[in-house]
Automatic annotation (TrEMBL):
SUPFAM superfamilies: vWA-like. InterPro entries: Tad_N (IPR028087), vWFA_dom_sf (IPR036465). Residues 207-252, 340-360, 382-409 are annotated as: Disordered. It holds the Pfam family Tad. Gene3D superfamilies: von Willebrand factor, type A domain. Residues 17-62 form the Putative Flp pilus-assembly TadG-like N-terminal domain. It comes from the Bacteria. Keywords: Membrane, Transmembrane, Transmembrane helix. This is Putative Flp pilus-assembly TadG-like N-terminal domain-containing protein. The chain crosses the membrane at residues 20-41.
Length: 644
């Protein structure tokens, strides 16, 4: 008995093997915890994959540009990720200007180790809701059409990128909700002749009794070019390179008193005839004649009457002789020139006016061989009224005394002065921007002018997607880079204080009446306002000709004329300061500003970055990256977002 007792007491007090027992218990616990970690990691990885796939799926399905049914899009995403069995359901809510997609799913995951703790299966749930909702949206798309855009194919890349942007921002669902102002800018911005007149812009008048602004026969013309100086030094000017790029010219006889055109040194390629249908003496219709044979007359005075009469017979809008303004001529190596007829005072000297001999024209194109000029000449009536004779003798046709004929200006820019950049108002001055180029230009892709032409004006509050797409496709480049002017117009067109201007455009048939009352108030909770500013260059100095009405400004670049022909109205640094002042006003008024610096220098890109609402709203891109930038901006404007 005592022996058994002793054995039990020894066993009770014996400590050998305690560590082994503890170790076995700890190993089992460690296996359970480690195994649970593996199961939990598998669970979390599966849940994260499921959630990420669901998020992508509902974002794609909620896109208003998505033409497939939302549930089909979500199912397709899940199938490609190998999770089709996990999808529980898709709920879709569609409205006139919104779409909400709600999807839920779950994955059942068998455990490897947690089943030892009683958990045989883990459930990974996921739910995603995406919404694209288009509230009232006002967008100002500000595009650089300066001459440098012709380098490295930039314009060719920008056009489709901007057109795609328009197609994404303006859809059937956004009709009546989203409006887009398209603001092309070069050295300045052309608001169009209707707003130009509304701003009380003063157009230049045709100069009387002046030799094209080039001085008289006893003095040299500016820039040393004498080709338009029909005085005693005309022979010297005949071989001047600025007249025909050095091409030898033939000697011509003294023009008759009633002549309007200089005989052309080489064969004429085409002419464009300009007409005014609304009485403002600025062209709004232009018809072209091309296909001139080598033996065709080179003096337009020989056939223009038949050409004008024929054009008027073909166009029902042309009913009165004074609708005919003038003609521009292109041919050979000579510079394209414009010659005024209506109200002309300087004979066969060239004048300030449009030169649309390349690119799109607001009219038709005819073949030289299809017109019987001699036959139609009998129906021609001069646009210049005759001065009544006092003695009954015959008189030649000449403008009546006191005639204040406007120059047929090819553009309608209004000067904007430095103090105006402290506000978001439309231009307040009465001054017009003269017609000139500062740098030489490439006639194949550019039109002459620091101010863009009448076919490259601001497009206001448009809801017509195709019209905007076509407009972008037809834009031609001009001289200078006035970023601050582009931003000024883009922001002013979002300012509710400028509703009168929009109302004036509606009254004149430029803007759809459904947009009366726009711009909507700043900070309106149902309205989003954006400026998208794109440029490829550095803001330039603002140059102006010393004589803003000199006809030479239509033919010779100011830089070629010489330093005495121009002055600097505002420096580049001042212009950048004005730009950034407008960008600050945009942020203050709740306008989101996106900027796209396209193949610019780092300093120019930094200016654009400083203008953007934040660094994430700025894009510095090269080559085809511009398409990605416009696409990213369009998606943000369309307000596609996850809401759960």
């Amino acid at each position: 008995m005592s022996s058994a007792y002793q054995e039990l007491n020894r066993f009770r007090t014996e400590e050998d093997g305690n560590i082994t027992i503890f170790s076995v218990m700890m190993i089992v616990l460690i296996l359970i915890i480690t195994g649970a970690s593996v199961d939990i990691m598998r669970f979390e990885a599966t849940r994260a994959q499921l959630q990420a796939t669901m998020d992508r799926a509902v974002l794609a399905a909620a896109d208003l540009d998505q033409h497939q049914h939302a549930s089909t899009v979500v199912t397709d995403y899940m199938q490609k990720a190998g999770l089709e069995d996990a999808l529980g359901g898709v709920d879709v809510e569609d409205g006139f200007n919104y779409r909400v997609v709600d999807a839920h799913a779950q994955v059942e995951l068998d455990t490897f180790f947690l089943h030892m703790s009683g958990f045989d299966r883990l459930t990974a749930p996921a739910r995603s809701i995406a919404e694209e909702k288009i509230s009232n949206v006002e967008v100002s798309l500000v595009l650089d059409i300066s001459g440098s855009m012709r380098n490295n194919g930039r314009m060719d890349r920008m056009r489709p990128a901007a057109q795609s942007f328009v197609n994404k921002v303006m859809t059937e669902q956004t009709n009546g909700i989203t409006t887009l102002n398209l603001v092309p800018f070069a050295g300045q911005v052309n608001p169009g002749d209707i707003l130009f007149d509304y701003f009380r812009g003063e157009r230049p008048k045709i100069k009387k009794n002046e030799n094209n602004g080039w001085g008289n026969g006893d003095q040299d013309a500016p820039g040393g070019s004498l080709c338009n100086n029909n005085a005693e030094n005309a022979d010297e000017g005949a071989s001047d390179p600025s007249c025909s790029d050095g091409t030898t010219t033939t000697e011509t006889t003294e023009p008759a008193a009633e002549d309007y055109f200089q005989p052309w040194a080489q064969a004429i390629s085409n002419i464009v005839i300009y007409f005014d249908t609304d009485g403002d003496e600025i062209y709004d219709v232009a018809h072209k004649i091309q296909g001139f044979p080598e033996n065709a007359p080179r003096d337009t005075d020989d056939f223009f009457k038949g050409a004008v009469a024929y054009m008027m017979s073909q166009d029902g809008r042309l009913q009165h002789a004074d609708q005919f303004l003038g003609i521009s001529i292109k041919g050979g190596k000579q510079k394209t020139r414009y010659f005024q007829v209506n109200g002309d005072e300087n004979g066969p000297e060239s004048d300030i006016g449009p030169k649309k001999n390349r690119g799109k024209i607001p009219g038709n194109t005819y073949s030289y061989g299809h017109i019987n000029f001699d036959y139609w000449a009998q129906f021609y009536t001069s646009p210049n009224p005759e001065t009544p004779p006092s003695d009954g003798t015959d008189t030649t046709e000449e403008p009546a005394p006191g005639n204040s004929q406007n120059v047929n200006m090819p553009s309608s820019c209004v000067e904007i002065y430095n103090n105006e950049f402290a506000t978001t108002e439309m231009p307040k001055s009465d001054d017009y921007v003269p017609h000139f180029n500062f740098w030489p230009y490439d006639e194949t892709v550019m039109d002459w002018g620091w101010c863009p032409g009448e076919d490259t004006t601001v497009q206001y509050y448009s809801a017509n997607r195709q019209q905007l797409v076509d407009f972008i496709g037809d834009m031609r480049m001009h001289d200078g880079t006035g970023l601050q002017y582009g931003m000024k117009y883009g922001l002013a067109l979002l300012d509710p204080a400028n509703r009168d201007e929009v109302g004036h455009l509606i009254d004149n048939g430029v803007v759809d009446p459904q947009f009366r009352g726009r711009p909507i108030d700043w900070h309106d909770p149902e309205t989003e306002k954006y400026v998208v500013l794109m440029t490829d260059g550095q803001t330039t100095d603002q140059y102006r000709p010393q004589d803003p009405e000199a006809p030479i400004n239509n033919d010779e670049a100011l830089q070629t004329q010489g330093s005495g022909s121009y002055y600097t109205m505002s420096s580049r640094s001042t212009n950048i300061s004005n730009l950034l002042q407008q960008c600050d006003l945009a942020r203050l008024n709740g306008v989101t500003v996106f900027t796209i610096a396209f193949e610019t220098s780092n300093s120019a890109a930094n200016d654009m970055k400083a203008c953007a609402s934040s660094p994430s709203h700025h894009f510095h891109v090269h080559g085809d990256e511009i398409a990605d930038a416009f696409d990213a901006v369009a998606r943000q404007i369309n307000n596609l977002r996850l809401i759960q």
